[in-house]
Automatic annotation (TrEMBL):
Name listed for the protein in its UniProt record: Glycosyltransferase involved in cell wall bisynthesis
Origin superkingdom: Bacteria
Molecular functions (GO terms): transferase activity
Keyword Transferase: yes
Amino acid sequence: MRKPRVAILHYHLRGGGVTRIIEHTVEALKNKDVELCIITGEEPGDSFDVPEEIVKVVKGLSYGNENPERDYEEMVSEVKDAAKDQLGALPDVWHVHNHSLGKNAAFTRLVLRLAEQEHRMLFHIHDFAEDNRAKNYRYLSGESSVSQEHSLAQRLYPLAPNIHYAVLNGRDQDILADTGIKKDQLHLLSNPVSLDLEQEEIAGNEDNQGGSGKLYLYPCRVIPRKNIGEFLLWSALAGENEHFAVTLAPKNPKYHDSYNQWKKFAEKEKLPVTFEAGQKWDMSFPELLNRADAFITTSIAEGFGLIYLESWLAGKPLTGRILPDIVADFRERGIQFPGMYEQVKIPVAWISKAKITARFRKAIQKNLKRYGIEFEEEDLSYWINTLLDEDKVDFGALDEEIQRTVIARLRKEPALKEQIQPVSLSSKWPDEAIIEKNKAITKKEFSLSRYAERLLEVYDALQNGETEKVKYARSSSLLKRFQSPQNFSLLRT
């Protein structure tokens, strides 16, 4: 059998999660029997680490607000020509990343047209417009689809034997399965994971690196879903020789004000926490990881959940908040997460039930309206009653202003911490045997070679499958699954 010809499509090749996966894909398939090219909307940045000769730029594919209006039918022809120039013929498989994200309607129409023309498509979904990206979803809802009979938002997930989907976790797999996508056309394609951890000697004054005590490291960029307030809550309740550090400031300017408020608050409350630790302590990322005694996460939403694997590769225990639907796949492979919690419950009375109910009600109404979801008063009551469980509320569901109020109160009245569930970060850290076992599983199951095996299996299934005229999945069920009280937080509104 001849080598399959594969064209990867994405809006851009700037630094970021999807770009890293494209780099991993090229590396994983480097010595495999695959002819590969990448078609994108702009020239790759200097940091993009793949051979330039396999990249072809088609103007109009990058994010919509950065492009002049273009006819998508004309772009379909250009993309086909670009692929033929690179591969010598049309691709056997079009491997498309994040087509349904709502960043460029022309890009979405283009790939849907390819699907309608019965090309073999792999739609690789990392992020969903339906998952708290209401602006993106409204944009798609306001755009007509290829057929002009429905909005793009109603036609995002075409169905045919020649169309397969890849997702990052079992939760997304289940959600898409509910829309009508067949099991054998829906693939769990976990990201490959590696960690460049050089055993560098830590230089400098230890007192300027969190002291000689226990260091909890949160390796993340501070954006709202990372729930930095909860991270500072634990720092406020820290023992005498405990210090907390977070690695990166937000890139997006819209998060700068929030970030600066947290920094000022931490300074005012004299919290044992360091922001942008690598820069402050003049340490490389590997040095930071080596310096840490444990990793911590307080994130309320993840796509893949890299933090739940990286800690083991670094040989460190992981503590903090766990997202059961994200780690379910990891647990199935044998990875253990002892001592982590799912929520931090605090008394509603600390805030005022009327105040928090009003904030929840306003935010829920706004969010449902933005998605065009009809609701009744009983629906709002269900959401609020779910969020306010027996006069307790999850700290991660609160907005940043209320979170700061709670932390400040605990600083003044530390005895109140006994009313929190859990009252502290677990002392039941995974022992060395669990860390080593988790590390071995991570290296085996989430290696680059394992990723290549899974991807080639998908390409093979597509290349040898039938083609048919497309139908469309029940996308409304997907929206309902994401827009639920279980996924709601004021931090994401």
